[in-house]
Amino acid sequence: MSARKQAARRSRKTRKLDRIESADPADGTLSAPRRAKRAGKKAARRVRDQAARASDRATEATAAARSMARRARQQSVARVRDLGNQARDRVVAARAPLPVPHLCFVVSPRRPIPAVTMPDSIRVATYNVHRWQGSNGRTKPDVARAGYVISELDADVIALQEVLRPFESDGDDPLGQLCNELDLHLAFAVTRQHRRGQLGNAILSRFPITAISVLDISHSRIERRGALAAQVGHGDASLGVVATHLSLVDRTRHRQVQSLLEHPQMNSGPAILMGDMNAWRKCKGSQQLEENLNLHHNVDWPSSFPSGRPMLALDRIYARGAAVVEVRHHDTPAARKASDHLPIVAEVAVEKGGAEGVS
Fold this sequence. Notes:
Elements: H1 3-22, H2 32-94, E1 102-107, E2 121-128, H3 143-153, E3 157-166, H4 174-182, E4 185-194, E5 197-205, E6 209-216, E7 226-234, E8 237-245, H5 250-261, E9 271-276, H6 284-292, E10 315-320, E11 322-329, H7 333-338, E12 344-350
Parallel strand pairs: 2-3, 8-9
Antiparallel strand pairs: 1-4, 2-12, 3-5, 4-5, 6-7, 7-8, 9-10, 11-12
Helix pairs in contact: 3-4, 5-6
């Protein structure tokens, strides 16, 4: 064998021995680099398995948390509903039902006043006193402020709207004080409860009030509205007076007008209908009033709202069996401050003939 072949054989044998020596035939482990690579794969596999198990546990925990939150939310909603129902039941049980418009009181001045016979022509007025709270409605109720304006009118019969009778007052009843200061007979009907007191319509009269009735003209579940009907004077020298405050809604206002026109007080002799008609635009209600009741000679109704700069003729005076000779608004510095409405004053010629009272 040549030397070249022997050298090649020794070289192959050396490489084979090297490979054999690089492995440990006793335990089958690999060399350091391969052991490191395999260890890395095992570590990665363990990490993946741990991550998968952690993900499964997190998913289970999330599902459990969502289930607990859902049950808690359902329980909370049920509890809140129960509390709300209990509170509502308690409020309903404790709260008095909404009052139906009703007569509150009729009073005469304390001082004796001589009997007054109704002349052929009288002065009447209607005035929305805005709960006695001034033109902005934010001041403390002050009956004297509006009372001064009423004294300026020097009217024989006055219809008042948004009259507030406080629940609590120092001393005498403020409406009774107004009656005594002006030497006028007074009737007051409650329409609804206000947070400060009773709210409604009133009639002041220089002539005795001989009959009185209250008409519920709400025609709506949203707001209470009423009318106060009275007979003032005696025998042939008497007059029917209806004071009211109509709705802001056209359809409801139309139904209220129909009820008022059918009331006996408007159909049993000379009568006047006064109040805040809320006729801020032409509607069926105002058209029906103008068609059925006598109008004044003026071309346009005098504007009464807002008092600082009157633009709308909300407050009006109608007559049946009597003639409205003249009508105007009462615009004075005191009137501009006392309410957000100006008073409307009219001279009325009464047709004598008697009228039967309504009780």
